Amino acid sequence: VQLGEAPNGYLRRNWDLMRTMDRGGGMQVVTARCNGRMVGYYVCYIAPATDDVSLITSTHISIFVSKDFAGLGTRLQRASIQMLRESGVGELCFRAGVMADGARMGAIYRRAGAEHIGQMYRLSLKDT
What we know:
Blueprint: H1 15-23, E1 27-34, E2 37-48, E3 56-65, H2 72-86, E4 91-94, H3 105-111
Parallel strand pairs: 3-4
Antiparallel strand pairs: 1-2, 2-3
């Protein structure tokens, strides 16, 4: 709800695919909890790069931090980057979405040392 999603938005997620990817080492999920309650998460997909046979790449796809835990997002990001580096991932791409704080994510990624490499656009091919 804090992200601007409908309360049942989680029902659209492809949980079976995510479970399969996770079992195969294709996902990294870093979470933060306080008194048993999840207060933040940072999710990345991991896969061999298509343009370099020697490179494993990761794409940041989702981050959430409860507004009660300022600064936690940066700590989750740093922990995720370190874990990816230690597991042999050679590149991390970041996605700045359009929901919640997506518009300001570019600045956060640049502070982490990421360089701007272009923009992503989406074209829906479904009948409207």
